[in-house]
Amino acid sequence: MKNALEEYRQEKGLTFEAMGKLVGYDRPVVWRHCQADKVPESSVARYHAKLQIPVKDLRPDLYEGETKS
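Request: output the structure for the sequence above.
Response:
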């Protein structure tokens, strides 16, 4: 099962490097985050702010009740 970050990357047709430039991470960091079962909690806010991916999609285990997107 893909995480929300990897789904976003594929939907937008972004390379790991291109996504990294958008959020301010290096390619290997983005690759690890896209391959992980869970996006690291410390990175959720950055991906949400830069890509507008809802926090509840990035980490449903932490933000199940969130209504903001």
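The chain has six helices and no strands.
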